[in-house]
Specification:
By secondary structure, the chain is of the alpha+beta class. The chain has 3 domains: about 1-65, no CATH class; about 70-175, Band 7 domain (Tetrahydropterin Synthase, Chain A), CATH 3.30.479.30; about 205-235. The chain has 8 helices and 8 strands. Mean pLDDT is about 80; it is low at about 260-265.
């Protein structure tokens, strides 16, 4: 009888301990707990840490509320009907205060049911507003519009868009060749324009230099007077006279310099 009581007491203790431990639940860091009672979602959202629940009646579904990353590649037609494949990385998170509503209305597969379709729809809608070249030249503007549209779509389902990064726009081979040809033509046209501008500048410089030389020559001609010519002749004769030793050259056959002595005497 004594042993029977001990066994019963032990069993009761085990049951009590089992019930106590079964009533405890832990919500890990970066998660929230959705409290279910007989499968029905309760309004209470369990935060991180230790919580009590009714064993066999209540269960807890964990939902991550950290920032999550989704990468996607979507093909769509641009405004000028060019096929564009866009690679995008999206960072989003679940509203910590609304995880119970998310679980109740969408379930745990919210990524495939909501996030992926929303990314695809937003990319296709915004891509159609721009030409292929504009998608490249206006990437920040395109990214901002995609972010705005995607943010509105996710917010309807208790999710918040953190950031979006358009990693690449990929076009058809024909379009890439057309872009390359256009860039080559633009570079050639720019080089031709630079060469033409250089030729024009050099020609203008030559014209300016010629005009300056002509103006200088004209001024020199204006400065030449009969008196100046006579003065120069006298200066030349004086210099020749200073060098003359009073003897006539002994070598014949050459021209003897003419010195106008009378002009010097009159002076």
């Amino acid at each position: 009888m004594k042993y029977r009581k001990s066994i019963v007491g032990g069993l009761v203790a085990i049951v009590v301990l089992f019930l106590v431990f079964s009533s405890l639940t832990t919500v890990p860091s970066g998660n929230r707990g959705v409290l279910l009672q007989f499968g029905a979602v309760q309004p209470t959202v369990l935060s991180e840490g230790l919580h009590f629940r009714i064993p066999f009646i209540q269960t807890v579904q964990q939902i991550e509320v950290r920032v999550q990353k989704e990468e996607s590649s979507q093909s769509a037609a641009s405004k000028d009907l060019q096929m564009v494949t866009t690679k995008v990385a999206v960072n989003y998170s679940v509203d910590p205060e609304a995880v119970n509503k998310l679980y109740q209305q969408i379930g745990m597969d919210y990524r495939s049911r909501i996030v992926d379709p929303a990314i695809a729809e937003s990319l296709k809608a915004i891509t159609a507003r721009y030409t292929a070249e504009e998608l490249i030249s206006k990437r920040p503007e395109v990214s901002a519009e995609v972010k705005d549209m995607l943010s509105k779509k996710l917010s309807k389902y208790y999710m918040e868009l953190e950031d979006i990064n358009i990693k690449e726009f990929a076009f058809s081979e024909e379009f890439n060749k057309a872009i390359e040809s256009k860039q080559t033509a633009e570079q050639n046209a720019l080089k031709a324009k630079r060469d033409l501008d250089r030729v024009k500048i050099e020609a203008q410089q030559q014209i300016t230099q010629a005009e300056a030389e002509a103006q200088a020559l004209k001024l020199k001609k204006l400065e030449v007077t009969p008196e100046l010519i006579q003065l120069k002749q006298i200066e030349v004769q004086e210099k020749a006279l200073e060098k003359w030793d009073g003897k006539l050259p002994s070598v014949t056959g050459g021209a003897t310099p003419f010195i106008d002595v009378s002009g010097i005497t009159k002076k």
